[in-house]
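As agreed, record copied across for absentees:
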Amino acid sequence: MRKKVIVIGGGFGGISTVQQLSSQKNLDIYLIDRRNHHLFQPLLYQVAMAGLNPSEIAIPFRKIFSKRKNVNIIMAEVDDIDLEGKRICFDNSWKKFDYLVMACGAKHFYFGNNDWEKIAPGLKTIEQATEIRRRILLALELAREAKALFRNYPPTE
């Protein structure tokens, strides 16, 4: 009988787990992530600095696992987990599993000063990287305008 494995999270841990398990023919593997792509986070700084486009570091899960017939991709957020009943809830529906792997990743921490996030965004998502990029490019534009405005200041006589 085939076993059902649910992997929550498509980061490095989740991807690696699915790759390792997918060679087992007796397993049906379900990768659940709120996004439909794996994000290569080590290069997010390149997106923030306008060196790369977001699409260059976001690889669709379906492309990664296109040759793995026992891997299923589910784009959803997990709402609840019943470990005793071996079931998981997403999209307002409960699904049974035999094995569960949680590879949900991490998020930035502001040491209890969460208002810092407004002025110092984290760098864990494409949205955060593009926000940093926007702020840097805007600052450069403002600096250029200020330089042009004060080019001849102070006036010389």
About this structure: The mean pLDDT is 94. The first strand starts at residue 3 and ends at 8.
